[in-house]
Amino acid sequence: MPRTSLLFAALLLLTGCHLPEREAALTPLPEDQPFTYGELVIRARNQTTTALEAFYVDAWTDLETIATGLDQTARLLPKSNGIPDTVKDRLGSQTDELRKDAKKLGEAARAKNVKGVNEVLQRINIRVRELGLEAKTPAPKPSPPGEEGA
Fold it and tell me: What global pTM score does this model have?
């Protein structure tokens, strides 16, 4: 019995550490709030990782939600503050392609198309990686309910 309790406690601790990142990836950002480039790139990375985890367990609805969020992140990136000079010239085309792939990911998830999701996730991973990031910045967290305009 003590081993079972210890194992349960360890699993609960691991799950608890992972939940905020997963929830943040599933929650839309406020449209009227400014974000830094670094925050949004980290968010895109977290969304991509969460999408891969959802894919592994056939969480198709979560995958659709993440695809919508990734589309939003890609749309907000060109409007962000602190865009590095090294990516300014190519950011528009990169985010356009990322948005197209996010839409394809949502479509493939709706169809439960394993091969399609896998192919799109590969492209998304490469695109997010190419966005690059020199500085480590924490990902933005959605505002708690009721504080969206504050």
Answer: 0.75
